[in-house]
Specification:
Length: about 200
């Protein structure tokens, strides 16, 4: 009953997010800077899809068992979409070409929805590997955007490119701390006595 009541709320929030991000004023504001385009607009689009996936997670439980065993096929699809939109040429095309912009507003929410349906189904080792891959990708992109001698995204200035590199480095550090602490907690709960102090005699 609670899930049924929650579903319309999640769908309304997701639709509001996508419609707000599609408004010309907000779209121009976020796409006006490289860092806000890549690290604010794109994650928000994926987050809207995540909410939709959460809303329909129970309804799609049986279809997920048919093609998304262990969440691996869905996670591979999500990684492909994320890698595509991390390419400088794709970021440029989203600004310059309407077709790529529409594709971004469709593919990123779709990837977020698939992620919400796939990530909880994956074994803990797979989830850990995905998190490690995301952190390493942020490190590589931080290095790439920081040291590249030329503009990788021709629609933006070189200074914005370096700013994005520093932002990726910050994201890598923050994700490492948060996910590392989460992993320690999960291991502690799993092993039972990890966080328990020895009893005094």
């Amino acid at each position: 009953m609670t899930a049924t009541r929650t579903r319309p709320s999640l769908l309304m929030i997701a639709c509001f997010m996508v419609m707000a991000l599609a408004l010309p004023q907000i779209r121009e504001l976020l796409e006006g800077q490289l860092a806000t385009h890549v690290l604010i607009q794109m994650p928000l689009l994926a987050s809207a899809g995540w909410l939709c996936g959460q809303a329909y997670s129970r309804s799609l439980e049986r279809p997920m068992q048919c093609w998304n065993t262990g969440g691996v096929p869905g996670l591979l699809l999500v990684m492909f979409v994320l890698l595509f939109w991390m390419l400088p040429r794709s970021v440029d095309a989203a600004v310059a070409q309407l077709g790529f912009e529409i594709g971004k507003f469709i593919s990123l929410p779709l990837a977020g929805g698939v992620l919400a349906l796939s990530f909880p189904r994956a074994p803990i080792l797979i989830r850990g590997a995905i998190k490690a891959n995301v952190v390493s990708m942020c490190v590589v992109l931080a290095w790439l955007y920081s040291v590249a001698p030329i503009r990788l995204c021709t629609s933006y200035l070189a200074g914005e490119q370096h700013q994005l590199g520093r932002a990726f480095a910050l994201c890598a550090a923050m994700l490492s701390i948060v996910w590392g602490a989460s992993l320690m907690f999960e291991l502690g709960v799993w092993r039972g006595r990890f966080w328990v102090l020895p009893a005094r005699s």
